[in-house]
Amino acid sequence: MTDNTVLMAMATPVLLLVVIYLIYSIIYFRQPQGAALEGPAVRGNARLQTTWICHQHRRSCSRWRSTGPCVWEEDGAGAGGGPSPLVVPSGPKLRFR
After folding, report:
1. Distance of CA 75 to the CA centre of its chain
2. Can you say whether the dihedral through the CA atoms of 75, 79, 81, 83 is positive or negative?
3. What pLDDT, on a 0 to 100 scale, did the predictor assign at position 2?
4. What does the pLDDT look like over 7-17, one tens digit per residue?
5. Burial of 96 (0-12, 13-18, 19+ CB in 10 A)
6. pLDDT-based confidence at 81, cuts 50/70/90?
7. Nearest to 23 by CA among 34, 32, 15
8. What residues have CB less than 8 Å from 74, skipping those under 6 apart?
9. This prediction's pTM
10. CA 49/CA 57 separation, integer angstroms
11. C-beta of residue 71 within 8 angstroms of C-beta of residue 77
């Protein structure tokens, strides 16, 4: 069997389940006639939202600060490809355009 045949055999049941559930949801969970179109407006908690955003910002900045500068060091990113590489490949050099 080819790779595409195996992929189709694996993906077809999943796709069928998704389509069947979509049709089921459209039929059984639609809004009844004459019902309210929208519920009441939801008011957020500004203090909680501000705290959450500031906390996430601090987390992402601290992660960048701890990993970002090592990428731009002159010795490379730790893969052994700096000025004195760990292993030099044998064979002809590849030509790049």
Report:
1. 30
2. positive
3. 84
4. 999 999 999 99
5. exposed
6. low
7. 15
8. 82, 83
9. 0.39
10. 12
11. yes
